[in-house]
Amino acid sequence: MPTLANNLSDTINRRIEKLPKSEIRSFSQKISQIPGIVKLTVGEPDLNTPDHIKQAAIDDINRDDSHYAPEAGKEEYLNAVSDYLKKSLGVYYNPKNEICATVGVSEALNVSFMAILNPGDKVIVPTPVWGVYFGIIKMAGGVPIEVDTSADNFILTAAHLAEVMENEGKGAKAVILTDPSNPTGRVYAKKDLKELAKVIVDYNLFALSDEIYAELIYAQKKHYSLTQIIPDRTILLSGLSKNFAMTGWRIGYIAAPKEIMQTISKINSFMITSVTDNVQIGAAEAIGHGEQDYIEARAIYERRLHIIQTGLEKNGFTMATPEGAFYIFAKIPSKFGTDDVAFATDLANKVKVGVIPGSYFGAGGQGFVRLSYASSEKCLRTAVERITTYVNEQL
Description:
This protein is α/β, with parallel strands linked by helices.
């Protein structure tokens, strides 16, 4: 087995070396070793990709569509995304120069931050949030500025953003929103976004809007986007992993004004050359003809939300009611203290339920745990029973 030459070991990229591994995945992998554990850790749907989407990709393979796709994406996929955004948000993006295909939203985030950040640029990151943001911003040379939103029911208010911009965020280049939110499931109302947009304009910021859960909003609420208000400043990122149960397909997209998209597309082509042909064709089928798929999935997740939320509340957990995505961010009952890592570890070891410590999602997460209900009703009911046993045994 080869080992790296001694005189090379001190020459690697120090910025990358200092980045920690994903605490969420590390914790999930660690407790996965416990036999019989019910894992509510990773945000991956247990549903299957709908058959018509799979068949579209299979048919494309059988047509020998196996050559390099255009760098920005296949025409079928880009047109489908453009049509969908016009229909759902009322905003037109030209598929020829304002949209590009990406390998999921993770790659879309990397590309977008690389396009706008110079070394040392600050990015406002409302927390708690998906922890990968921090590493991606740092890899692009940026500096994440965490903004704890817990006092405002996990919504970044315009007043709070303005306050941050006058203090630790002074001179920031961008702000990123996840809407609906991972880990809290909170959703921004149209009024919230309009107020935020004014501050974003006043401080001359880019707005990155991660809308990967946009189709999974409950109680018949409507999804709104910053791109409906300030399209000239917004970089919209989304994909099909969550709404169509296509996590392993790794397909997403970026939509933005053509001036910044020129840079984004250039970086994207250097990073990946192009996205897999048949995956784009399957994705085009999903976006173009799959509305009923995510409507049905949304109804399933809403039922599951009721099961897990009711069970947790009966056991003394409190939470901001999730309005979208498939996560609950629950505050640990006070008798257990605020050490969420210790709580989650003990819960896994004693009653075999896997949850993610809230502190892994940044400021405002201490004393909370995140539970994913993208799992079967049977698993969720089992988890509630075991959590009930754990809470009662600690009385």
